[in-house]
Specification:
With 230 residues, this protein is an alpha+beta fold. Among the domains are: 11-68, no CATH class; 141-229, Alpha-Beta Plaits (2-Layer Sandwich). Helix content is 40%, strand content 23%. It has helices at 11-20, 34-42, 52-67, 92-107, 117-138, 157-165, 202-210; strands at 3-6, 77-80, 141-150, 172-183, 186-196, 219-229. A four-stranded antiparallel beta sheet has the order 4-5-3-6, sandwiched between helices. The chain has a two-stranded parallel ribbon with strand order 1-2. EF-1-beta and EF-1-delta stimulate the exchange of GDP bound to EF-1-alpha to GTP. Residues 141-230 form the Translation elongation factor EF1B beta/delta subunit guanine nucleotide exchange domain. It holds the Pfam family EF1_GNE. GO terms for molecular function: guanyl-nucleotide exchange factor activity; translation elongation factor activity.
């Protein structure tokens, strides 16, 4: 059965995750898996050191993704934006008042009024927005680790990384990075990114952005080190 977490970017969500990781090293099972990547990707930023267990786990997964990636499937995990409505207390009097108010509003609606062009257009726009939202929710995500190599040891690696991170597009989130020695005084940039599969193509990202002007002034080559579905 899949493990479910709610609102991991809130104090309540982080506290529950911290309690969960008090007696375990990973989200599920005894090795890092895609369940860990799912929860890792759901966090908008590194957790505060206040959450000792979450912070320990986050740093460990971050290191694994940078070095070798994570391939184990896991048992399944679900991350929701907030707690289900059913778990929240309901004030019966307020609910009754709201229902009565809704009935009053419905009495004012002209059920036989003629639909205008504006009404039709608004309905179509709402329908399109709902479909687009549903597609985004269904779309999978992937975590990718890239090796980006400079032209030589004189390349300014700080400017190289700034140029890489300057690439902005919907569905792309840049993560942690580090410089790794290659030899002869040359270092490569190793950087993590998370993508929404339906919105971002890693091949296009490399060919049309990282290897194109003006970034190719700094970048000599770019390779995919690890690619994991979340």
């Amino acid at each position: 059965m899949a493990v479910t977490f709610y609102d991991l970017n809130s104090d309540i969500g982080l506290k529950k995750l911290d309690d969960c990781l008090l007696t375990r090293s990973y989200i599920t099972g005894y090795q890092a898996s895609k369940d860990d990547i799912t929860v890792y990707a759901a966090l908008s930023k590194p957790p505060s050191s206040e959450y000792v267990n979450v912070s320990r786990w986050y740093n460990h997964i971050d290191a694994l993704l940078r070095i070798s990636g994570v391939s184990a499937e896991g048992s399944g995990v679900i991350v929701e934006g907030s707690a289900p409505i059913a778990t929240l207390p309901v004030d019966d009097k307020k609910a009754s008042s709201a229902a009565a108010a809704a009935d009053d509003d419905n009495d004012d609606v002209d059920l036989f009024g003629e639909e205008t062009e504006e009404d039709k257009k608004a309905a179509e726009e709402r329908s399109a927005a709902i479909k687009a939202s549903a597609k985004r929710k269904e779309s999978g995500k992937s975590s990718v680790l890239l090796d980006i190599k400079p032209w030589n040891d004189e390349t300014d690696m700080q400017k190289l990384e700034e140029a890489v991170r300057s690439i902005k597009m919907e569905g792309l989130h840049w993560g942690a990075s580090k410089l790794v020695p290659v030899g002869y005084g040359i270092k490569k940039l190793q950087i993590m990114l998370t993508i929404v599969d339906d919105l971002v193509s890693v091949d296009n990202l490399i060919e049309e952005h990282l290897m194109a002007e003006p970034i190719n002034e700094y970048v000599q080559s770019c390779d995919i080190v690890a690619f994991n579905k979340i």
